[in-house]
Specification:
With 126 residues, the chain is α+β, with helices and mostly antiparallel strands. Helix content is 37%, strand content 18%. Strands 1-4-3-5 form a four-stranded mixed sheet. The protein has a two-stranded antiparallel sheet with strand order 2-6.
Length: 126
């Protein structure tokens, strides 16, 4: 299952790139690699810096240690069995992407990041 935010524009090969990670049975989810596409003002430029540091540095280290804490709502893919075993997507939290990610890890699955940029842009209103 692939989830995206309403303001996400995917590259044409995004879904097929994410599916490559599910070749291994223990992969429960894949966190997409996000890039801000509308760096037009100071707010969106700072957001782009935040995404770059959080995803290109922190999340790569977390990927190596299998401790990714969030498969982002912007772009993420989930193995059906892992999603079901973890209890599915719940509505009793404000951070459903983080909550689901932690539950999948607790079920013993591995979560990876997609190293290739999958998303063209995430529009943010200033």
């Amino acid at each position: 299952m692939v989830c995206i935010d309403a303001d996400t524009q995917l590259k044409t090969d995004a879904v097929s790139q994410m599916m490559k990670y599910f070749i291994h049975d223990k992969i429960g989810a894949v966190a997409g690699n996000v890039k801000v596409g509308n760096e037009k003002n100071i707010l969106t430029k700072w957001q782009a810096i935040e995404y770059t540091t959080a995803q290109n540095f922190d999340r790569r280290a977390f990927d190596y240690l299998n401790c990714i804490t969030v498969v982002p709502g912007a772009i993420g893919a989930f193995r059906k069995e892992a999603l079901e075993e973890a209890g599915g997507i719940t509505t009793d939290t404000l951070a459903e992407d983080c909550d689901l990610t932690i539950r999948i890890l607790k079920c013993g699955y591995v979560i990876r990041i997609a190293r290739k940029r999958l998303r063209l842009q995430k529009r943010r209103r200033p």
